[in-house]
Design a protein that fits this description.
This protein has about 270 residues and is an alpha/beta fold. It is about 45% helix and about 15% strand. α4 runs parallel beside α5.
């Protein structure tokens, strides 16, 4: 190793990222590409994914975009197949795509339950399955699944979302025990409050526009939960994913990683 930071480089490697058109997913794709990886950006918003891919290429990186509905198994297989067809390998899979749900558990409809399970749970599992098949043939890789700080703290009206993210954790840890023999590592990212389109549903007024007063109230509340007095940005999560994707974390698997400003501190 000629330089200590070389261990974080991803030159010659290939990554696939879901939810890559915006927010944490887009930041992850940009950071992995900046570290040298060739990246396939998957999202239901194909125009957004293409725009992100163009931005990566404008900075000298290599990227492709593909539409993916994460609730559909075949779409994950197609995403991985694109990486294999274009570049012959898959080294990193970041399953970032997910959706929120608000409301008391007593009122959850079967349709809403099915929607959250399809996207957050099945969508993560399908991504893992497609990645494992590709990585096992090469003898290694890193899978990063995104959960949430909601797994650590029971909060009214977040129960359905939290239970799907808790399922992601157990899925990931069990998978880590099953695929380690192939050299595949599986870890979980559990973000704290991070400003993305995901959180903007709390900030919009009746016209659908971000209300400055609501934004400031939200920021104040989130800062108050952090000993650092900070609210996260997508890049804060992306840097942690880079660590988990790189050889710097070669001895790390089956763990929950929290970039959350200290909002929760589980033992």
């Amino acid at each position: 190793m000629s330089d200590l930071l070389d261990v974080f480089r991803l030159d010659g490697r290939v990554a696939a990222v879901t939810g890559a058109a915006s927010g944490i997913g887009r930041a992850v794709a940009e950071v992995l590409a900046a570290a040298g990886a060739r990246v396939v950006l998957g999202d239901l918003d194909l125009a957004g994914a293409r725009a992100a891919a163009r931005e990566i290429e404008g900075r000298g990186g290599t990227a492709l975009a593909q539409r993916i509905d994460v609730a559909v198994r075949e779409d994950h297989e197609a995403l991985v197949a694109l990486a294999l067809r274009e570049w012959g390998r898959l080294d990193v899979m970041a399953n970032v795509a997910g959706v929120p749900s608000d409301g008391p558990l007593a009122d959850v409809s079967e349709a809403e339950l099915d929607r959250l399970l399809a996207i957050n749970v099945k969508g993560t599992l399908f991504g893992c399955q497609a990645a494992v098949r590709a990585m096992a043939e090469r003898g290694g890789g890193s899978i990063v699944n995104v959960a949430s700080g909601a797994i650590d703290l029971a909060v009214p009206n977040y129960g359905l979302y939290a239970l799907t993210k808790a399922a992601v954790v157990m899925m990931s840890q069990t998978l880590a025990t099953e695929v380690g023999r192939h050299g595949i590592r599986v870890n979980v990212l559990a973000p704290g409050a991070t400003l993305t389109n995901f959180t903007q549903r709390h900030l919009r007024d009746e016209r659908g526009e971000v209300d400055p007063a609501r934004l400031e109230n939200f920021l104040s509340a989130m800062r108050a939960r952090s000993p650092l007095g900070l609210v996260g940005e997508p890049i804060d999560q992306a840097w942690l994913v880079l660590y988990l994707a790189s050889d710097a974390s070669r001895f790390c698997t089956g763990q929950i990683w929290r970039a959350n400003g200290g909002q929760t501190m589980p033992r």
